[in-house]
C-alpha cells in the first residue's frame, strides 16, 4: 500500500501514525504543501490519502493558497474510490470538500487524547491499521458537521 500524506504546516507531521503504518509496510509519499510541494492531480500511484492538521481554519484559502487544489484532490480520490483520512484541519477540509459545514472558534481541545474507532472505522482499510485507543495529539478550536453521505470513522473524548 502507498499512501499520500499532505502536511499543511511545518512541524505537524505524520508522527506516531507514520511509525505504525511503516511497521505495516505502508509506503509513505509525504508532500509539504505549505512549502510549495506539488500535489498530484490524480490519485494514480496512491492507494489512500491522509491530510494532516495545521493552525489555519479550513476556510482560509487566501492564507493557504494550496487549499483549493487540495480540496479538489480530496474529491478526486473519493471519485476514484480511494480512502481519504483527514486529521484535525484535514478532517475540516475533507468536510468542506464534500459540502459539510465548517464551524470556527469552538472551545479549545488540547493534549493527547485516545481516539475511539467507530464500527465503520474498525472495518475501514486504513483506520483498521491503527492500534485501537492510540493517543493522538489534539490542538484545535474549529470543528465541522459531517457532509451528506459521510462515514464517521473515529471520535475523541469530546
Automatic annotation (TrEMBL):
InterPro entries documented for this protein: ChyE-like, Class_I_gatase-like, GATASE
Occurrences of domain Glutamine amidotransferase (ranges): 21-154
Short name of any one Pfam family annotated for the protein: GATase
Gene3D superfamilies noted in UniProt: 3.40.50.880
This protein's name: Glutamine amidotransferase domain-containing protein
GO cellular component terms attached to this protein's record: cytosol
